[in-house]
Amino acid sequence: MAQRWVVVVLMLTCGCALSRAGSLHMPPDQDEALVWPAPPERPRIRFVQELTGPDDLGWRAGFWHGVVGWLAGSSSQERFVRPTGVAAAEGMLWVADPGAQSLWMFGRQRRRARRIQRAGTTLLVSPVAVAIGPHRSAFLVDSSLAVVIAYDAAGRMRHTIAAPGFLRPSGVAYDLSRDRLYVADSGAHVIWVLTGQGEARGALGRRGAEPGEFNFPTHLALDPSGGLSVTDALGFRIQRFTPAGAFAGQFGRHGDASGDLASPKGLAVDGDGRVYVVDAL
Length: 281
What we know:
Residues 12-31 and 67-76 have low confidence and may be disordered. The chain starts with 6 loop residues before the first strand and ends with a strand. The chain has a single domain (73-279), classed as 6 Propeller (Neuraminidase). It is globular, with a radius of gyration of 19 Å. The protein has one helix spanning 63-72, and strands spanning 7-12, 17-18, 24-25, 35-36, 45-51, 60-61, 85-89, 92-97, 102-107, 112-116, 118-119, 122-123, 127-132, 138-142, 147-151, 157-161, 169-175, 180-185, 190-194, 200-204, 217-222, 228-232, 237-241, 247-251, 264-269, 275-279. The chain is built from one helix and 26 strands. The chain is 4% helix and 44% strand.
């Protein structure tokens, strides 16, 4: 039986989310929703829905995207293949899908979905991570091309960033207030710091096991103050840095007990500074 890959849409209880019909709405009453932690504790996460592709929202693909698909003989029901990265803000949802070699874009304003497979004339190869940029834009990391690609809110490529030091970029985060673009490079074992236009501003870390060093960093997340959290995948820990780049702490160790990490991957930080880690094992 074919595998069915989904993006599970969760939300913090203080925010809004995409509804099944594709419009923004406030969450349902607590007793009607799947939340964590369960009552009587105050819920912090609410399940909204799962997505396997544009059809789950009842949205249509853009006109020219549909024409190209028809000419190519592709199915009208497009699905995610192996989604690995997701970012959402201001009515936009972006999904990086290296299995489909695509970046999926969902826009609430026009209730349209788009599958992006190119950066200019270059086909995407391994789009693994995505972050929200200014004006509802997105920064996409393609690890095989060793490049960061900036797309605008209409899905048009704005520019590419191919820093000389990139080996195998794997994660991305953008701090709008400081115009800081952070790129995790699992090949170089560093976090590159750039502007949104790609101007170099330095790097964090080097290969090693000491605080502030990395062993295959993969995922990034920013907290409300601009502090950076990093999944140090083969260090089996999460490391945290101040907005100025100073080491601010770490947690986790290799193991399968409570608080241990066996295969840490995805990372998020909520409005209260709580860190959420996806452990694949």
